[in-house]
Structure formats: structure tokens, C-alpha cells
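hey team, just a heads up i'm posting the complex here instead of the shared drive bc the drive is being weird again. everything in one block, sequence lines first with there labels, then the predicted structure for the whole assembly after. its two chains so it's a bit long, scroll down
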Amino acid sequence: MKVKGNHFETIWIHPHNQAVVQIIDQRYLPFEFRIEDLNTLEDMYTAIRDMHLRGAPLIGAAGALGMYLAVVNANGERIEERQITDAAAYLKSSRPTAVNLAWAVDRQVNALQGLTTKEEMMETALSTAIAVIDEERMNCLKIGQHGVKLIEQLSRAKNGATVNILTHCNAGWLACIDYGTATAPIYLAHDQGLKIHVWVDETRPRNQGARLTAWELQQHGVPCTVIADNTGGHLMQQGMVDMVIVGSDRASAYGDVVNKIGTYLKALAAHDNQVPFYAALPSSTIDWSLGQGARETPIEERDGNEVRFMEGLANGRICEVDILAPGTRAVNFGFDITPARLVTGIITERGISNANKKSIFTLFPEKNLNPEY
Amino acid sequence: MKVKGNHFETIWIHPHNQAVVQIIDQRYLPFEFRIEDLNTLEDMYTAIRDMHLRGAPLIGAAGALGMYLAVVNANGERIEERQITDAAAYLKSSRPTAVNLAWAVDRQVNALQGLTTKEEMMETALSTAIAVIDEERMNCLKIGQHGVKLIEQLSRAKNGATVNILTHCNAGWLACIDYGTATAPIYLAHDQGLKIHVWVDETRPRNQGARLTAWELQQHGVPCTVIADNTGGHLMQQGMVDMVIVGSDRASAYGDVVNKIGTYLKALAAHDNQVPFYAALPSSTIDWSLGQGARETPIEERDGNEVRFMEGLANGRICEVDILAPGTRAVNFGFDITPARLVTGIITERGISNANKKSIFTLFPEKNLNPEY
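-- predicted structure starts here --
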């Protein structure tokens, strides 16, 4: 999507040097827009581990390109299989719980298997990485094409008056290659000329909404307003929200949605005020083994310092302030589970389903291993 | 309650100089504990306007003591009625929408009426102010005495295991004279030796939970943990909250509760997880003229900069950081309305009622002007 009027994606091959990968270094957003050159496997490892980039689809692409950089920088004309598996293990350890990272790295390992010359390997690693990027981009675009129909319907029902959409956290293009997941229908609606406005939940404690979602919407020209996470319920009571679209970190085939902490509270408010609540996600996010209610999902407990320290700009410099008294304890759970009963629908790359197994298996029949459904 | 091991209230007459009022200057909490001397009516005006102190009961007491300071500092042996009414109008203008301020100032004006000598007036103004303070303190204590029974019941049901209580914003002793409203049952339970733990909602955008509630609980020795406002729903889903107690800025006789933005979201989660949800409030908070649903309540829209700027400590100094990109819009609604159907009960100075007119009028029969109830 657009940044300062130009089209950007989150990760790409350097236009004048195929041996270099470039990324948007997201650590400085929204205060500074920095592009970082990644020259080596080690550079990519650091970029992933230290969250220069984040978001499941983007981390997958970064893993694929990290393997490409490992091949590019290998010494000599021939590369041993051991070099590839070592590079893969190293790269996967940068964020051990990121499913997409392991998946994309393994895809490279498989593609490179049996090849021996560096030249062949470079060619294969590059085309595999480009395939991963193309697929991720296409999934988001399709989510957008399906989801935008919902916004079109609301716009028609309102006779073209502004459609107000609330979102939580960042399921935007900065987490993907382009378009985003929750934001894909929003960008497509905006580009089609529909009048829309987005309420952006700040999303404490890490403020991904205030920092990333608001920035990317604003750069693309989509009208938006940041609100404290406490505000969405009131807005819905007042009829100021027409729909909610969020992303997801993991979903069950029953339609339960695991997403950034606080999503469940917004889903409750949406349900209480008859506001449609959608989760937009590529089907790779669906954990087909997850039971009803998704209750076996481990909820990551992160560092309480993410609650304690708040980063922002003071006197033109990025710095952080400590918002608690010394000795005050803070805890920080990363995600919550929104039960399917609160979810109006799931927007996937294959279409929109209701939040139940029957409807989801209608879109993904190959996943249905149980004829009962 | 206790600060650094000593008992404090929020406002008092200087122990060695009856012509001086002292307050805790709350602007610097939780980073610095500062006591401020207020010598004049003008000092009190500034303290109220610039929020050195806040909270409806405390502002009432400050108004009464502000009038006392006006009398103390009047020139000559005799004070004209005009001097009193001028002082009253000036003081009330420090926070024009604070109902308790106007009420307490008018009480002083009425008490002083007909008196002429400064000596008589000083004596009357002092005793009136002390009466206001005593009543506010007593109301909170009674709320605590009624509310603590709920915690005792939960403690018994859990065989003495820790009772986990979630609260939102600051309805603590810092908003009152002592005890607080939502916190009064908590302090009494703790002082009785019951095992309790309090989840303190950060309460964006002004962070009254993180700054004030966590500080005052910690100073008094009550175990507590600060959480992002997004977290309460997840905690309730996990069975980690036994009850919710909040304060209120305005309530209807039907049991609807207007309170800090975000309260409604916690009430929804409590209802969805069968967690009892109580509002603790002195009956002066009930607006007997408010209709069912409290929908005519004007919801204050405050400065979006309260969302944009975050205050905290950096390098030992209090400073604020800007957390949004330039040009990003933020809105800031102060309150939301929790409908009575989500409220388990109302804890008042006369006892605990259900959140409906019949039950509330049973406690306050003199307010029932309609024999239908």
C-alpha cells in the first residue's frame, strides 16, 4: 500500500542488487520510516528476532528470503546439504514459536534438496521465496475481494453514508506483504471510492493499533481515528460502529478466534449491540486440530515491562517512560479467545463462512476428515 | 489509608496552623508523594481547577474548606455577605460541572448567612467543612462495611483462598477523604485479614488505575497487579476474577451505572462469565431524575491529547511522550453507561441493593415519589 504517495510492500529484493533484501524496519514506526538492507543470513536472523518485522505472513516471507541470503553468501561453487540444514535450524531459532517461519524455511530446504551448485541453488531459492511472497500477497488480496462485499452492502444500506469499521491491533499490510488481512477489505473499499472511516483501537500494551494500523491507514489516505481500548463499547452503544473486522493468530474449525488480548471484549460489545463482528484470516491460520472453544490454546504470558514502559516521541527523540510506581506488579497476557458464538463470520481467501464447522468445511472440504460434518 | 506506613487522608487542616489547609498533590503520583499547603481561596481554586485533587467527594470537601480559607483571609473584623457570595461564585467556577463542589460551597454560604463577625464565621465555616469531611468519610466507611460482606462470602466459598477482585479507574480513597468507594470493601477486607488480590485496570487514557489505584493499594499493603484494559475479559474466562467492583460518576434509580469509559466492556465480560459485578457509590451519586438506561446522560468528550500523550518517568524525571504519528486523529470519550441488566448490585452507605428501582427504593424510600413502585 502507499507510503508518502508511493507503493510499498514490507519486504523485497533490492532493485539494483539481487544479493540484498530490503525491509521496512518497523521498530521506528510511526515516528520514522526506515528501510533496512539485509545482506546476510545473520542480518535476517536479527531482523526477525528483534522484530524489525513481525506478523505471521511477513515472518514466513522473511524466512524464505533468509534462506536465499544464506545461499547467496555461501563460499565456493558447491554447497553441502549440511550448510543448508544448519542455516535452516539457525533461522528457525530466531522466533521458535512462529509457525509460518518454520513452514517457509522448510519449504526452502525441500526445494533445495538434491541441488548442488550454488548457481542452481540461488535460482531455486529466489524463485521459492518469490512464490511464498506471491502467495501471501494473493491470499490477502482475495480476503480483501471477499470482505469488501460486506462493506459494499453496508454502504448501500446507509445510502452511501460513511461506513464506520472498528479494528483491534495490527492485522494490516505491515504484518503481511501487502493489503493485510483485517485491513484488506478496508483498503479495497477505500480504493473503490466507498466512504469509510476506521476506529483504530490503540491496543495496549504494545500499541500496535496506535503505532502501526493508524500509520498505515493514514499513509494510504484512509480516514481513521485512534481510540483508547476502553472506547469501542461506548461507540457501539451510540451506533457509531457499523462493523468490526479483526485479524487472528489462530482459529479453530469451529469458528473460535484467538487474537490480540482485548478482542473478546470488543466481540462481546458487538454482540450486545448487534454490530457484525468478522475475523479476516488466511486459512493457514486455522488450526484444524483445535477443539471447540479453542480452550487448549496456550495464552502467551509476556513481559510485564510491556505494560510498564510506554514508547513515544519526546523532544523529537524516541524514548520510553515508566508509567508505574516502583515495585508495582504488572502482568501481560498476549491473546484472548473469542468464542464462535460471538463471531458473525470468517473472511478467508476462499470466501466468507459462518463461524461454525459446517460452513468452514464447505469452503475447505479437503480439511474435513470426519464425514459426520 | 496508609502511605509509607502512616495514616493519611486526602485533605486536612494543618496540624500546627489552623489557617492552612493541606492536601496530597495528586498530579505527581505515583512518582512523587507531595503535600501542598493551601493558604488562600485562590490556592484552593487553582488546586481544584488544575486537578491537584480530583474525585467528587474530595472536590466537595475542598469546596467547603476553600470557603473556610476565604473567611480566614478576609480583612477586618466584619465580613460582608457580598464577600461570601463572590468567593462562592469564584470557587464554583474552578470546575463548573462538579455537582459536589457547588453543593458544598452552597452549604457553606447557607451556614454563614446571618453571621457578621469574622470570628463567628471562621468557627462556623470550619465546623461546616469538618462536617462535610466527616460525612464523606462516614459514607465510604459504611459502603465498606456493607461491601465487605460480599468479599467475606466469596472468601468462605473459596475456603479462605485468595479472592480476586477487578476494579477499573480510581474510585479509591484518593478520590474521597478516606477508604474510597469501590476500594472501601477491599480495604476493610484486607484489614480484617482476608486474603485478597486486586486486578487494577490501567484505565487509559489518563491511567488513573495504574497511577492512583495501584499506588494507594500498594501503599496500604493490599496485593495488586496492574493489567492493560484489554486483559479483564481473558482473566474472567480463565476463572481468575471472583468479583468486579467499580465506582460511579452518576447512576440511575433503575440501576444503570455511568462510570469511566471501559466499565461497560468489563460488565459485559463479567456477565458472560457469571462473575458478580458491583458498583459502589454514595447515594448522592444517584441522579433520581435519570430515566431508565440513563441514556440522556451527556458523555463528556475530552481532549484527544489525553490519548496522544502518555506521562511517566524517564531518567528520574516526570515527562510525557507522544505515542502517535503527526496528524493522526484521536478522540476521547470520558464515560460509558453500563445498563442495569449487567449490574449484580449497588453498594451504598445504606446497604446493598439489586440494580432495579424497587430494590433501590427499598433502601431510599424517601426518594420514591411514585407510589407505583
